[in-house]
Amino acid sequence: MNGIGAGEGAAAADARQVDVVVIGAGQAGLSAAHHLRRVGFEPERDFVVLDHAPRPGGAWQFRWPSLTYGKVHGMHALPGMELTGADPARPSSEVIGEYFESYEKTFDLRVRRPVEVQRVREGDGGRLLVETSDGAWATRALINATGTWDRPFWPRYPGQETFRGRQLHTARYAGPEEFAGQRVVVVGGGASGTQHLMEIAPYAAATTWVTRRPPVFREGPFDENLGRAAVAMVEERVRQGLAPLSVVSVTGLPVNDAIREARANGVLDRLPMFDRITPTGVAWNDGREVEADVILWATGFRAAIDHLAPLKLREPGGGIRMEGTRAALDPRVHLVGYGPSASTIGANRAGRAAVRDIQRLLARGTPVAA
Q: Would you say residue 27 has pLDDT above 60?
């Protein structure tokens, strides 16, 4: 049995066969499912969409209530259906959740949820075996659209376990009110870090902002040339098999009136990264210390791709080497919403590109992985 255990053999024998499995029903997954429909693939017969979330909305459904739709920048509509008439004062989790739910129904995508994908491994006859909490699927191609929300990144610093206050990641941020009267250290120079800091400052007793690198504030419009340059930088990393940077990390922080006011008021005065954490706060080797009740880690996320580990796609650089949306080591596997397509407009384009590539792959016949 080639080393396959009895349980694994049973999973393969009972697997439902489809041409394509889409993992994830956020922007990237729904875009891919839409394009599969457009070129003639039938949901549940030819392809299936699996989503671990309890309801439509992708990662947006887990966003903090104070992130209203009016504060969201760069939200690009899904292909074939605009998001119109949304109240900018409503939480983005509600607005986008309802939009995604309507999209799924309009295009009859039949997303299965909640379904946890446990692992993807080599199956029989050149197919991939997708093992889940809802049984197994044997598929000729895979579109992985799992994003990053499930893998918040927590850096490690000396003394972290001694801190007597509260530590939380931005993934668990619920709003500024919970920090009332507290001394808060916000770690991270991205959009979430600055948004949280500006929201918390009016409630907190004191705030301190620390980042590894000096933040880059970008004045003026973000035009297509700048966008292409940013995406090209991320693409080059994934071509080399390095762990991808987010597109946002290479674009800088767009300056608006709220940013200008926060900079003028000293809220966005940045300190370099501390060297250690103490029981009562954070400290630098030059002798400076800041006392804190809370450390909020706005330190980003990593790609949620551990379920692909049996396929051995990772390179020594920590990432998956990509050729377009296709994994260089296995042409059956496409990653959308990964690396250069980790933006709403990038996810749309990647979904279309992946489907075109899969059409060509299936026309040639399912290859056997090396």
A: yes
How far is it, in rounded angstroms, from Cα 37 to Cα 32? 9
The one-letter amino acid code at 184 reads V
First to last CA, the chain: 18
CB 201 within 8 A of CB 262: yes
For residues 30 and 351, give the distance between their C-alpha atoms in angstroms, rounded to a whole number: 8
Judged by average pLDDT, the poorest of 5-9, 45-49, 306-310 is: 5-9
Neighbours of 328 (CB within 10 A): 16
Whole-number Cα distances in Å, 328 to 17, 238, 243, 342, 370: 24, 10, 14, 18, 11
User: pLDDT band at residue 329, thresholds of 50, 70 and 90?
Assistant: very high
> Pick the residue with more confidence: 271 or 191?
271
- Integer Cα distance of 49 and 62 in angstroms: 20
Question: Residues near 240 by Cβ (< 8 Å), separated by ≥ 6?
Answer: 315, 317, 319, 321
- Quickly list H helices, 51-117: 92-106
**CA–CA gap between residue 3 and residue 9 (Å, rounded):** 10
Contact (Cβ atoms closer than 8 angstroms) between residue 168 and residue 178: no
Query: Exposed e or buried b for every residue in 3-23, given b needs 16+ CB within 10 A?
Result: ebeeebeebbeebeebbbbbb
265 neighbors 112 (Cβ within 8 angstroms): no
Tokens of 9: 């053999």
Beta-bridge partners for 117:
132
Distance of alpha carbon 242 from alpha carbon 244, whole angstroms:
6
Cβ atoms of 336 and 32 within 8 Å: the answer is yes
Instruction: Region of 126 please: left (phi>0), alpha (psi -120 to 50) or beta.
Output: left
C-alpha dihedral (136, 142, 146, 148), degrees to nearest 10? 130
Q: How far is 125 from 103, CA to CA, in rounded Å?
A: 35
Q: What are the angstrom distances between the C-alpha of 234 and each of 54, 192, 239, 320, 353?
A: 31, 20, 9, 13, 17
285: tokens are 């080797």
Q: Do residues 92 and 66 touch, judged by C-beta distance below 8 A?
A: no
Gap between the Cα atoms of 245 and 302, Å rounded = 9
